[in-house]
Each structure stands twice: as structure tokens, then as C-alpha cells.
Amino acid sequence: MKILHRVASAIMSDLEAFEGSRPALDSEDILIVRGMSRKKIAASDMADVLSNLLKKIDAKEVDVFSDEATDIIGIMDEKIREKIEIQGETDVYGIYRLKESLESMNCDVEYSLGIMKNVGIFIVMWADKSGIGPRFVEIVVVSVE
Which sign does the torsion angle of CA 13, 15, 61, 91 carry? Predict the structure, then answer.
């Protein structure tokens, strides 16, 4: 199994989102997977859950507004653009706009960015603020070498 698949599998398994998950993009150097977590996670705990998950898989959490994050997000964007035509420029603040967009649809949202060895990891989790329904999970795992 490729390293990207191992990392994605570990994340989705820990979040109990592996069953029924689907790859949105699966190539040699980037993997995007979407699923629904079966874990009962309070909105107030989502950030800690994601942070602890990165620690569990020996990944270093990266501040989304740091230079290191800009590099990782740039690589993710480049790898996605190699496979899919996207309008506009790479923008680290796009992650924040994603969060604002989901929040405007009445969702609780948290995300985390990490790096382990030569793999960049972005995890976003969201759910309806009513507490009804599942926690949705999307991960991007990319080779950064």
C-alpha cells in the first residue's frame, strides 16, 4: 500500500469514517478522501480531536497561517491543478474562506494541517450545528518531496 493510502487509512479509521468513504482524487502524489465519521464528537471537541489525531500518527501540526503552511498548501494546490482545471490563484486564506462558507450554512467546522516525513496532511471536519446528522470528514494527503 502506498504511503498516502496508509496515512489516509489511519486518519479515516481513527475518525471511524473509513467505511463508505470515497476517494475524490487518487493519484501517485495526492489523495483526497471524503467520508462520514461515526464517532460522536461534540463541536467543542473537534479541534482537539484533530490535533490529537495528528499526534497519534506522528505528524507535526502546522499553523495554517505560517510560511510552512503556505508551502504545504502550495504543493497541495499544484498537485490538484495537475489533475483538475481550477480557476484562480493558490491562496492559503482559501482554507479560512472554506470554513466561513460552511459556517454560513449553519455548520460547526474545524480543520488541521500537519506534516509527517514527506507527507502533507489537511483534515477538515464539519457537521450541522443542530447536532443532528453525521460529522463529515475530508482529508487531503500529498507527497511533499
Answer: positive
Query: Looking at the 3D structure of the chain, how many domains does it have?
Result: 1
- What distance in Å separates the CA atoms of residue 37 and residue 46, rounded to the nearest whole number? 12
Task: Quote the strand ranges of the chain, DSSP E.
Answer: 22-26, 30-37, 60-62, 107-116, 119-128, 135-143
- How many C-beta atoms lie closer than 10 Å to residue 98's C-beta? 15
The whole domain housing 55 covers 3-143
3-state class (DSSP) for residue 49: helix
What is the distance between the alpha carbons of residues 50 and 20, in angstroms, rounded to a whole number?
20
| Distance separating alpha carbons of residues 121 and 59, to the nearest angstrom | 8
CA dist 35 and 117 (Å) reads 25
* Euclidean distance between CA atoms 53 and 19, whole angstroms: 18
Grid cell 499544484 is found at: 78
Taking only the tens place, the pLDDT of each residue in 103-143 is: 999 999 999 999 998 999 999 999 999 988 889 999 999 99
